[in-house]
Write a structure and sequence with these properties.
- This is Histidine phosphatase family protein.
- Keywords: Hydrolase.
- With about 200 residues, the chain is of the alpha/beta class.
- The protein has a single domain, classed as Rossmann fold, CATH 3.40.50.
- Helix content is about 35%, strand content about 20%.
- The chain contains 5 helices and 7 strands; from the N terminus they run E-E-H-E-H-E-E-H-H-E-H-E.
- It has helices at about 30-45, 60-70, 100-110, 125-145, 160-170, and strands spanning about 1-10, 20, 50-55, 75-80, 95, 150-155, 190-199.
- The chain has a 5-stranded mixed sheet with strand order 4-3-6-1-7.
- Helix 1 crosses helix 2 (about 60-70).
- The longest helix is centred in the last third of the chain and has 22 residues, at about 125-145.
- The chain is globular and about 55 Å long.
C-alpha cells in the first residue's frame, strides 16, 4: 500500500536565537504553535476520509503541536517515540553556538559519523535510531493495513531527525561518513516535507 509521510518540524521554541538546545525540553511559542497547527491542518485536507497516524518525539514542543492539531483534526491516532528526539548535544545544550570552541566544532565535522559532540550522541547514533523508528513504523503499518484504508502518517519531530530520515530515504544508506553527505536543509519551524512510501 501507498502512504503519504509528513515530516513536520515543531513550531519555534521559547529560546533565544543562536542557542544549541537539542533535547532540552523547551515549550513552543504559543502563537507560533497555533499557526503551525492551523497551516498543517489546512494542508492535510481534513475533509478527506483519510485517517492520521501521528508520531511525536515526546518532547514538549512536539506534543504541543500534536495537541493543537487535534483541535483542527479530531480523533488523531497519537503515539510518542523517543527515537524521534533531536540529537542530544550533551555539554553544549543551552550554550550559544558562537561560544562553543571552534576546535570542538572541527572535531565533530572531521569525524562526523562517530564523534559525540557534547559527549552524548553521534550523528550515526541519531541516524541509527531514526531508521529503527521508521522500520518499526513500516512493520506496524503492514500489521494494521486494510485494502480500503486511507491513512496518512505524520511525524512531528525535529530538524536533525528530518535530515536523518531524508538522507536514508534518498540514499538507502544506514551509515554516514562525511559531513558533506548530510542534508544541508531542513524545514523551517512549523513547516514540513512530504514523502510517498510503499508498505
Amino acid at each position: 500500500m501507498t502512504y503519504k509521510l509528513w515530516l513536520v518540524r515543531h513550531a519555534r521554541p521559547e529560546v533565544d536565537e543562536g542557542i544549541c538546545y537539542g533535547q532540552t525540553d523547551l515549550p513552543a511559542q504559543s502563537q507560533a504553535n497555533y499557526t503551525a497547527a492551523q497551516n498543517l491542518a489546512h494542508a492535510l485536507d481534513v475533509q478527506s476520509s483519510a485517517g492520521y497516524l501521528v508520531y511525536t518525539s515526546g518532547l514538549l514542543r512536539t506534543r504541543q503541536l500534536a495537541q493543537a492539531l487535534q483541535d483542527f483534526v479530531p480523533g488523531l491516532d497519537l503515539q510518542h517515540d523517543a527515537r524521534l528526539k533531536e540529537m542530544h548535544f550533551g555539554n553544549w545544550e543551552m550554550q550559544a553556538w558562537n561560544e562553543i570552541p571552534k576546535e570542538n566544532i572541527d572535531a565533530w565535522t572531521n569525524d562526523f559519523a562517530q564523534h559525540r559532540f557534547g559527549g552524548i550522541e553521534s550523528c550515526q547514533d541519531v541516524l541509527t535510531r531514526v531508521i529503527a523508528a521508521y522500520q518499526d513504523m513500516l512493520t506496524e503499518l503492514k500489521a494494521r493495513a486494510k485494502p480500503d484504508e486511507k491513512c496518512q502518517i505524520i511525524w512531528i519531530t525535529h530538524a536533525g531527525v528530518i535530515r536523518a530520515l531524508n538522507y536514508y530515504l534518498a540514499t538507502g544508506n544506514s551509515t554516514i561518513e562525511h559531513v558533506d553527505q548530510w542534508p544541508k536543509t531542513a524545514p523551517g519551524f512549523g513547516e514540513w516535507v512530504q514523502h510517498t512510501i510503499e508498505v
